[in-house]
Amino acid sequence: MRLVKHENEVNSLWDSEFIRQHDVAGPRYTSYPTALQFHEEFSQQDYLDAVRRSNHSRKPLSLYIHLPFCASLCYYCACNKVITQSEDKKRRYLDALIKEIRIKSRDFAADRPVYQMHWGGGTPTYFSGPELTELWFEVSRHFHLVDPERGEYSIEIDPRTLDGDKLGLLKGLGFNRISLGIQDFDPRVQEAINRVQPLSQIRELMDAARSYQYRSVNFDLIYGLPYQTVASVERTIEQVIQLDPDRISLFNYAHLPERFKSQGLLPEEALPPAEEKLQILCAASNQLVAAGYVYIGMDHFAKPNDELALAQAAGRLHRNFQGYTTCKEADLVGLGVSAISLINNIYCQNTKSISEYQTLLDADETPLSSGVVLSTDDEIRRAVIMSLLCQNRLLPARIEEQFGVRFDEYFSNEIKDLNGFVEQGLLLGGQQGYEVTEKGRLVVRKICMLFDTYLSQHLQSGRRFSRVL
Ligand code: SF4
C-alpha cells in the first residue's frame, strides 16, 4: 500500500553526486564515546557506583537481552553469533542468562519501571517456545515490566525459525514489536548469501503479525550483496512496500572477508561495484520516500504515523546500540554475552566469550569485561552528537543550560567548521541554533565527527570505519 504520492518533490533527495562528495568514513554513534574507548580497567565498583547513582535518578529502565545462537550461517554476517544445533549449548546459555538476570536485578531499585525491552541476536527465535516463555517469565519476575499497552517490547525474528503459532506465543508473552530479517527477496541473491526465505513465507508472517495486532513491524534490508542491481533491488523494494512494514532499516553490506571469514564464501565477482552500490542506495531510498516513508536518519525509514517518526517530530528520539529508539530518559541494562549497558554516566560491556560468560556466572560474578566512565566533556559532546542525530538540530542555549558552559567558548574551534557546513548546505542557521538540512541528514555523521575528540587518535592508529558505500 502506498502511503502518500509526492514523487516529484522527493525523488531528488537521495543524490549520488551529493553523497559521493560528502560521505566520509566514520563511527555510527550508537554511543559516544564509541566502544573503542571501553577499557578493561573499568571495575565492578565503577559499575555499582553508577547503578547506585541511577537509582537516585529514578529514571525508568530499558533492557537489552542477547541470544547469540543461529541454526545456519548467513555468509554476509558480521554479528557476534554461534552456529549450533546443540540443545545442550542453548540450555547452558539460558541458565547462565537467567542467573545474570537474577544477580543484576538485585542492584536496581525494585520499583523502577521497564518501559522498553529488546531481544536481539544471533537468532532469538531459534530458542523454542517453552524456552522463550521461561526467559520472559524470569525477566518479569525480576524486573518491573510495565504492561504491553505502555511498554515497547521488541524481538528480532529470523523468518525461517517461526510460524504463525510462535508469533502468537510471542504476542501472548507481551512482545508488541517485531523486526524481520529480510535482506533481499531475489532468489539468486538469497542463494548466494545462504539465506533462502521465499516471499510467500514473509507474506504469511505479515498476515499473522497483523492478525495478532503487533504495534510495529520492522524489515531489515541490505544493499551491496552479490547479484544485486538497481533493477533487482527496486523489485525487492516494490515487494516490501506491498507488504507494508511500519519501519525499514536499509543497511550497507561492508565486505571484509579478512575480518569475517564467512564473507569469503560469497561470490566476490558478483558484488556490485562501488558506483552501482551508490546507485542502488539512492534508488531504493528514493523509492521508499516516494511511497511515503519518512527518512529518520542513518539507515532508518518509518511511516509518518509510526512512533519513531512521531518521536522524532516531537524531539523525543534517542539513539542506542539497537539504533533509534523512542525511550529517551532510561538507563539501559544489557544482559547476555557481549551486551552493552548505559547506566548513569558509564558504558560497560559483558565479555564476548560465551564460555567465559558462563564460567563467571557459575562463580556468581557479574560477567563485565570492559567499560568507560564518561567525563563531563564526554557528556557535553554526547548531548551535542545525539541532538544532531536524533532531533536534526543543535541548540546552543540548551547545551548551556544543561551543562553550565558558554557554547561559543567551549566549542570555539568547532564553530568555524559548523559555519562551513552552513555554507555547504548541510546546516541552516547560526549560533542561535543549527538545523540539519534534508540533504545534510544523509551525511549527518560528518557533522557529528566534528565534536568527536577521540576520532583523530583512532584514524591515526589506522582504525577503519564504515562509509555509506
Ligand atoms: S545474519 Fe542473523 S541469522 Fe544469519 S548468521 Fe548472522 S545473526 Fe545468524
Notes on the structure:
The protein has 469 residues and is α/β, with parallel strands linked by helices. The chain folds into two domains: 7-23 and 31-332, Alpha-Beta Horseshoe (pyruvate-formate lyase- activating enzyme), CATH 3.80.30.20; 375-455, Arc Repressor Mutant, subunit A (Orthogonal Bundle). Helix content is 41%, strand content 20%. It contains 19 helices and 20 strands. The chain has helices spanning 7-10, 16-22, 44-57, 87-105, 129-142, 164-173, 187-192, 199-211, 230-243, 274-290, 307-313, 354-362, 376-391, 396-403, 407-410, 412-423, 438-442, 444-448, 455-460, and strands at 61-67, 69-70, 82-83, 113-121, 144-145, 152-157, 177-183, 216-223, 247-252, 294-297, 300-302, 318-320, 323-325, 331-335, 340-343, 346-350, 368-373, 393-394, 427-430, 433-436. Strands 1, 4, 5, 6, 7, 8, 9, 10, 11 and 14 form a ten-stranded mixed sheet that branches. Strand 15 (340-343) and strand 16 (346-350) form a beta hairpin. Helix 4 runs parallel beside helix 5. The radius of gyration is 22 Å and the shape is globular. The relative contact order is 0.16. Mean pLDDT is 92; it is low at 1-10. Iron/sulfur cluster (SF4) is lined by residues 70, 73-74, 77, 79, 81, 121-123, 158, 181. Iron/sulfur cluster binds next to loops.
